[in-house]
Amino acid sequence: MEDRNRGGTQADVPSPHPSSIVVIGAGAAGLMAALTAAKARANVVLLDSQQKIGAKILVSGGGRCNVTNEHVTASHFHSGSREFVARVLDAFGLPQTLRFFQDIGVPLKLEPEMGKYFPVSDSAESVLESLTTAVRSSGVRLRCAQNVHEITPGATWTVRTTDHEFSPKAVILCTGGLSLPKSGSTGAGYAMAGKLGHSIVYTTPALSPLLSDSPAHAALSGVTLPVRLTWREHRDVLAEYEGSFLFTHTGYSGPAALNVSRHIARDSKDHPAAALYCRFVPAVPAGGEREFEAYVLSEYRGHGPYAMAARFMPRRVADMVCDAAQVNPRVPMARMPAPDRRRLMASMLDHHLPVTEVDGYRKAEATAGGVSVDEVDPETMMSRIVPGLFLAGEILDVDGQLGGYNFQWAWSSGYVAGRAAAKW
Questions:
Q1: pTM of the model
Q2: Interatomic CA distance for residues 8 and 24, integer angstroms
Q3: Which helix (H) or strand (E) segment is 293 a member of?
Q4: What Rg, from alpha-carbon coordinates, does the chain have?
Q5: CB contact at 8 A, 265 and 204
Q6: Measured on CA atoms in the order 115, 119, 121, 127, is the torsion positive or negative?
Q7: What is the spatial distance between Cα 350 and Cα 268, in angstroms, rounded to a whole number?
Q8: What digits encode the pLDDT tens for the residues 299-353?
């Protein structure tokens, strides 16, 4: 790879290599792509715009880094083509991921409740340090604080940064999306891909908290419980997620809320009447409302509504549910008028949660949308439009649910791109 540093010495520049590659972006996908290509004997330069790399790795999983999930399948991802996602995951899935991290000195442990894998060290720093060490040991030249401002394709590409110029045979774009901008995500890769002829599926935040101005819910800040959230327009269910849920002083968070956020961000324009509803007793299946009501009347006939609801949820939430239903707290369930009882059941099992907006990219853990996967070959991650251009990670129109899925996408797509680019 020819590396022309117009302001410095040429002494450390290797001779051109037939498999020379520039990887742009040293996040999870970029690190995996660079390492994979280098292991295949390619001469690799890895560029990143930040002085310190891996900010998203360091903050993920509460500083523990949720590396992957035991339930990885394409069904846990959103994309223009789940078949595309499935083919990439098949090439580098969970078994390969577990072995890869074991080999670089990061043994993983399973937390079975959610299927999440974390490093045994419980330290995201250990993940980043081991990845960086492996990359450097493989011969990859990592160059930080390098903003790429020009990419010109050809039999030999031209990649220019502020003070360097590279002439690789292939380029791998791993620039990420727009989530967590404090980590350095600017969406610059979308502009690069767009200039090269790629279509960009419109982007929105994903895995972001929800904002609400409801004073009733603000009073519950800090309360967490299991729920089922349904995002629907009239009777049409647009999305549904079950999991832990957290009331915050600004709205809602927790896995269920984060997972549904990408749908709210993307569907609100086309579904203006859509609203979010919460089932505070998620064990009650769809269609099981009458059976639940009969059970409550049988088991809690002498209880008042507050005492009954508190058997299924935290008392503060039970109070809010009963207040919203406007039921008399002194009337036992067995003597409650049928209209009051129906309102109470609806408040417990189909409670409207007002949402003003999604919190945006500032707190989003992923970006929905990106480079259209219709324009990328899943066998190689190479552009179908520009030969020699490969893409991996969040830059593509692929976003996963909470729980390590987006990291798995980074490892899988980075591996496929790095392997194929080394052969180009």
A1: 0.93
A2: 21
A3: helix 289-299
A4: 25
A5: yes
A6: negative
A7: 20
A8: 999 999 999 999 999 999 999 999 999 999 889 999 999 999 999 999 999 999 9
